[in-house]
Amino acid sequence: MRSFLSILKIVLHGRSAGKILLATIFSFTFSIAVILCTFGLMDGFDHLLKSGLRHSSGDILITNRKGFFNLSTELSEKIRKINPLSISPVIQTEAFALFGEMSKGVLVRGIDDKEYSRSVGLSISVPSGGVVVGEELSKQFNLKIGDSVALTFGKGNEAASSLPLIQTFQVSGVVKHGIYQKDLRFIYLNRAELGEILGLKKKINLLILSTEKSGSLKSLEPISDKTNHLKNELELGFIVKPFWDEYDFLIEAVKVEKFSISLILQLIVLVAIFNIIAFVIYIMEKKAQDFFFLRAVGLSLKEISRFWFFSIFFVWLISCLGAYLLSGFFNWCLQNLSFLKIPGNIYVLSSLNIELDLFAYATVYGISFLWILMAAFIGYFRLKRRPIMQGLRQEFN
């Protein structure tokens, strides 16, 4: 321990060595933080997108090519073969929402509160005569609980030629899915009430199934397998889709971009490694006489090498800790600073956050450790290949 502290004092002796070391650590910390944040943003986007889609679509959606249909006993039995956690029958139709001088095309869903909440994981309660609106729609219309909003319907398939039907409802709640367009367009009504307005009796045009527990979805394969099973079980007239179907291209694009961007960002780490190598060369040249003098008075090359590799490991450890703190700070900025909010109509989501799991940390920290180990070996070989006599001649010159 004493020898370690002695060598450390020699290395850090002088103002320039300490400043260069701090700058080197900061540059390495920043480069690791950039890659961590990139990984986290990609994973965060993927997580928020899937979460928002599940909160509006459940796990599996079933529709019929002919439009409205009855939930028959035979159909229910076929669906129950995949052991769904819940089944929610839904009436889905388009309408115009009117409030004051503003109007917007919306997607109206007639739901049964308990069944729908179990299927999508959102707590939605729609009383008779009331509506629950998406968060973005409430902001654009400046709607508050208790306000009255008018909906214009086309009265279903059988009465398509009839005049539009206008009904007024009271806003009873606001819901957030996490997907910008869905928060902007979705309105929920009581299913029985909407069926009566449209003259559909007990017919529906959408079934939403929940097959996996909320929060337990780590892979899409279980839902994909059950979707394929249902496609084989149901008649050709039914369309079975997983919840991510409409954004499948976006999920795949995120996977590709995550890989390609992480490779490109290794250039930033490479620049930081050049700084570390420059620091190593500086120390080897500036403190070479001190190192060789220590070796001449009895300090072994093994002890110096141990100090050297431990110091490099310490630099890596400090950089990893700093990168962790920087990524946390940036995540806080994303959540709280208005100028970092993203336009939801372009990026689908109205906000982003950084999601980092153990695999992401292990990958980023592991690769950075390999890079810095390379710098450590450069310093070690520079020290090893020079004989003691050469160093002592420099000392006494």
Question: Which whole number gives the mean pLDDT?
Answer: 79
- The structural domain count equals 2
Give the proportion of residues in helices. 55-70%
Query: In terms of structural class, how would the helical and strand content be classed?
Result: alpha+beta
Largest sheet at a glance?
6 strands, mixed, barrel
Characterise the protein shown here.
By secondary structure, the chain is of the alpha+beta class. It folds into two domains: 2-51 and 252-396, no CATH class; 59-242, no CATH class. 57% of the residues lie in helices and 17% in strands. It has 15 helices and nine strands. A six-stranded mixed beta barrel has the order 2-3-7-4-6-5. A hairpin with a 2-residue loop joins β2 (86-99) and β3 (102-111). α2 (15-57) runs antiparallel to α10 (266-286), α2 packs antiparallel against α14 (358-384) and α10 runs parallel beside α14. The chain is elongated and about 95 Å long. The chain starts with a helix and ends with a helix. The relative contact order is 0.18. The mean pLDDT is 79.
Describe the SSE topology.
Elements (H helix, E strand, L loop, with lengths): L1 H11 L2 H43 L2 E5 L8 H7 L6 E14 L2 E10 L1 H8 L9 E5 H7 L6 E6 L11 E11 L4 H6 E5 H8 L7 E5 L10 H13 L4 E5 L5 H17 L1 H21 L1 H9 L4 H36 L7 H4 L10 H27 L3 H9 L1
Parallel strand pairs: 3-7, 4-6
Antiparallel strand pairs: 1-8, 1-9, 2-3, 2-5, 2-8, 4-7, 5-6
Helix pairs in contact: 2-9, 2-10, 2-12, 2-14, 10-14, 11-15, 12-14
